[in-house]
Design goal:
Nuclear Transport Factor 2, Chain: A, 40% helix, alpha+beta, homotrimer
């Protein structure tokens, strides 16, 4: 029976880790639909209160700045013209109450004259998440255009660390 | 020992939920390869008998109508010219014997003159699945082009619900 | 108590399978970031010593040939100009100490004049992996351009087998 109790204890840890990975995946896969729906409140719920979203163009500090970005131009213009914010499959590393997620993102914008979409941006992404009161939230997202610059490559080179 | 038995019972539920999410993921990731292989029977096996595939252009009702679409023009023409049906990482919410999966899809078509592919469609997707005799099957897929229309945005806004 | 011990034994198998799927996913999602970072050593660690990477253009035999590809032209030129190697969600089938993973891949290259990226290649992929000394490694990757050819379609048609 001690053996069984020990096995159960080890299973609890292993299942918790699988659930944490799945929960981080749930957060990251909720982002694209929310941002393309233009649902600023749903986007905001994915980020920690004092989260930082650090892009090529500007740094947004705090959940309010991030939801403001969703609510305003140029983001709302992209939606009105037709756009998609997509990720590719995410490399997720969980370590206790923190996690690092690395992937590419795509920003596709509709080109009505060509009856197709233009791949406007292909970007390297690093998400840092934390478990906050039982829920996984994004604390920092760093995103850099894959234009050959060292900074985008360095971001991808740190996957899992 | 009662404690251990209780822990095991809770683990069973938690592992079942993780397995259900993985099984839904298996169904959705089998779709693209099957449809680009032009394998109508493999596509058909992913859908419930009375499934509905509701697109911008037309509504297919029943597994037979969906496999017929795979077997015929224009789908077979797209394959012959070179095409890829891709998803981005899927947000999956399981609730007992039903599940909702939300993601984007891409339809890429080869442009031989440009030695590249054209992003023909970027689409909002909502899949509703059910456990049927122990297997997860697609009961309804609703897909709308991300062209700025309210219906595509509303579809993404319902992710997880 | 026998019942509990039996349940625990079955849970161990089920959790192991979920962990194996997650571990294969970890390997495949580490590939794109490593290859776009130009980190040949990180790419090499994902492949078995005698791995084969079989593409439309050439067949690389052995981990050294694969890391050499990352370190040299034209790969390093693509990185310097701006590129992204992306997958779409991967269909993973684990069978004991081997696994098959099927998905699409995209190779996107920056077009500075158009302020956008060109979808240069959309490719059918089959990865065969094995557990080697406790770690999942890629033993063979077969990749064929989705240009309408039978070989690419056949590759996708074998998903999960």
């Amino acid at each position: 029976m001690t053996d069984t109790a020990e096995l159960v204890a080890s299973l609890l840890e292993r299942v918790q880790l699988l659930e944490d990975k799945a929960a981080v995946h749930d957060v990251l896969t909720a982002y694209g639909p929310a941002v393309d729906a233009g649902d600023a409140a749903a986007v905001g719920r994915l980020w920690a209160e004092n989260a930082v979203y650090d892009t090529d163009i500007r740094v947004m500090e705090g959940r309010d700045a991030i939801t403001e970005m969703v609510r305003t131009a140029p983001h709302q213009d992209y939606i009105a013209e037709g756009c998609g914010h997509l990720l590719d499959p995410v490399n997720i590393r969980v370590d206790g109450d923190t996690a690092v997620a690395t992937c590419h993102s795509l920003l596709l914008r509709r080109d009505p004259e060509a009856d197709s979409f233009r791949v406007w941006r292909v970007t390297a992404n690093r998400f840092e998440l934390a478990r906050v009161e039982g829920s996984w939230l994004i604390e920092r997202r760093t995103a850099r255009l894959l234009d050959g610059s060292a900074v985008a490559r360095e971001l991808l080179g740190r996957a899992g660390r």
